[in-house]
Design goal:
503 residues; alpha/beta; Aldehyde Dehydrogenase, Chain A, domain 1; Aldehyde Dehydrogenase, Chain A, domain 2; six-stranded mixed beta sheet; 39% helix
Length: 503
Amino acid sequence: MTLADIQAAVGLRTPIRHQLFIDGRFVDALDGQTLATLNPHDNSVIAEVAMAGPADIDLAVRAAQRAFPAWSRLAAADRGRILLRLADLIEANAEELARLESLDTGHPLKDSLALDVPRTAACYRYFGGMADKFQGDVVPVEAGFLNYVTREPVGVVGQVVPWNFPLMFTSWKMAPALAAGNCVVMKPAEITPLSSLKIAELMREAGMPDGVVNIVPGLGSVAGQYIAEHPDIAKIAFTGSTATGRRIVQASAGNLKKVQLELGGKGANIVFDDANLTAAVNGSAWAIFHNQGQACIAGSRLMLHERIADEFLERFAALARSIRLGNPMDPQTEMGPLTSLQHRDRVLGYVDVAREQGGELLSGGRAPGGDLAAGCYVEPTIVRAHSHTDRIAQEEVFGPFVTVLTFKDDTEALQIANSTDYGLGSGLWTGQLKRAHQFARELHAGMVWINSYKRVNPGSPFGGVGQSGYGREMGFDAMREYTQAKSVWVNVDAQIAPWYPRA
Ligand code: NAD
């Protein structure tokens, strides 16, 4: 199939962008290298995308440096206006963006349309509106002095995102960085670069000045590593695995970059015996099976009070078995493929790990055959762990794989919930207000959902504690992350006593 055939087959109207975006132009990599992007539904090649190497990153950094003085001094409202226009353009191109995202990642089209694209537009709109509302302070200092604090952009910011929500995650990173006056060198994951290149095109249409945004797909170990090391990049914001996060911290030491890390998770989703079971069953399925479980905040440890465990599991397993697995482009599909074959095999490997440690497979656990055999599919999988210390209860699987644990009382529930090194998102289902707030306080997590799971909003801080990283995306916190305070002292009418009396 030619590129045009693929586009026609999935209903894309404009050509797939497959070049780097540097200094406002789409260009090939200097050494001509490309990387094939695959459709996870059948592993066919969708596009050959230019792959940035260090020399291309250097060009992108220089373009960003050139653009920075004018962009950072532009009136904040004018920066905001460009982001607001971008949000409108994303909505105007919603269908196209959703199809591209589904083609590249395997997200069911109905999710890309209902969630990824609207959330991306909402993020640019939120930070577009925020640009001229994020203000400094005046500090009440000693008499005769005025002390004011401005928030200055950091400079050229490197951003590296993973493949699970490429469209949304590029907005979470670029929108606050740009609103605050920074210039960006963004590296999408090597296997899912397409939607961010489309955003580059829309940025240009929205009036983004050349060089302010540069999008450089490339290998993590080459382009990502080089961004982390680059002496002229002032900050790196990273979303990805904890192991890569550690590498980034080490690489950033050369010029003491500001570092922001959104890493892995092993979310505890706790169902108490007084919970509304219907809501909890539905919410728990959403918590783990949405996006095939490829979410850092997935509710991947399903913790059930022992009194309700059997009834809950019966209903939960029935729901899991009823989920419609299929081609993401089919509007009826509820769960698509994982994003790569390599990742599918890794996820299936955890079924063996579970068996070796005495886990009980309650549902799923296989790659489906038939029409889906050539794709990266995994059935919704439910495994009861032998102990909360087992690998399947401690390690991030990042797939449609949920580990079931039971507890007898609140004390044990909290102890199990807090027994991993991660601390990203956790949820609980209960009818007791007091217990809900006590758990919200005690859970080792950056985000807690009560009688709900996996809610996100551009205004609400997103990030983790412990091995889940540091720093926050979204809201005012994100603006603080992308700025530095400058304290200015003015002697208004203070008498300066001479330090040396003879003066
Ligand atoms: P990954 O760490 O392998 O890759 C993420 C990104 O980092 C990719 O763009 C990759 O090219 C790049 N990269 C790889 N090696 C690099 C290096 N040495 N230097 C710089 N960049 C490098 O992660 P992944 O497997 O693509 O993504 C899944 C992981 O991301 C999971 O652990 C998941 O929990 C995490 N995640 C976290 C959040 C969050 O907000 N906390 C959100 C989504 C995903």
